[in-house]
Amino acid sequence: MVSLLVVLTFGTAIWSASSTRHAPSLVMSRPERTPSAITVPTPSTSAPPAAPPIAVDPTRSTIVIDPNTYHPNYDTIPSLAGDSILVFIGTAGRLFHDPSAGGTVRAFTVDRVLDALDGIVPQCCATPEIPQGHPGDVPVVSGVTYLVFWTIDSSTAAPTSCVVGGTRGLFRYDAASETVTRVSMLPSHIPTSLTLAQLVSQFPDPGQPVPERVPTPPVCSPSVTGG
After folding, report:
1. 191-222 per-position pLDDT tens digit
2. Domain residue extents for the chain
3. pLDDT digits (tens, 9 = 90+) for 127-173
């Protein structure tokens, strides 16, 4: 009888301990592990890993820039084209709210692409948009046709689009005479009006590789587009 009582008592103790160790958790849904599988990590005293180096295309030359002092004059066609992802002739559409763009934008119906980065028009740029209504935004009129030096700024966590150089990258386009007229009144080496052929002839040579700028310049920052 004593032996049976000891066995029952020992078995009850094992069941009780087992029930406590493997009781369902109200916080964690993952399966309980056996004690032998549990390990306590030792706090690390080593320094945090260094940030990964900026990826650089070895086939292209590299220009290192300082984002804090990046401030091109944008007073020549090559300088405008150099910061553009797309140069197009298009008609400004209606205003609408685009949450992904962070506010009110105006989309363009592209009539003609004159130049594109690497000669390819990305799918995202089929209907280019520019922000409207914020300080530094370039106002455009619905229904008016423009020649636009357009880009996307990927230097921030949320990429934004804009006209390169603000008003300096926007030209009114006259289809009848095939001429463009600067919107900006800032001093510039670009004539007030010039033919489309004259403008296109100043684009960088497509056969020459474009240097890679590191890090990505803040091309849509108000300090860059504001003149």
Report:
1. 999 999 999 999 988 777 778 889 999 999 99
2. 62-225
3. 899 999 887 789 999 999 999 999 999 998 888 899 999 999 999 99
Q: Which top CATH class is 62-225? A: mainly beta
186-190 average pLDDT score: 96
Give the chain as a 3 state SS string: CHHHHHHHHHHHHHHHHHHHHCCCCCCCCCCCCCHHHCCCCCCCCCCCCCCCCCCCCCCCCEEECCCCCCCCCCCCHHHHHHCCCEEEEEEEEEEEEEHHHCEEEEEEEEEEEEEEHHHCCCHHHCCCEEECCCCCCCCCCCCCEEEEEEEEECCCCCCEEEECCHHHHEEEEECCCCEEEECCCCCCCCCCEEEHHHHHCCCCCCCCCCCEEECCCCCCCHHHHCC
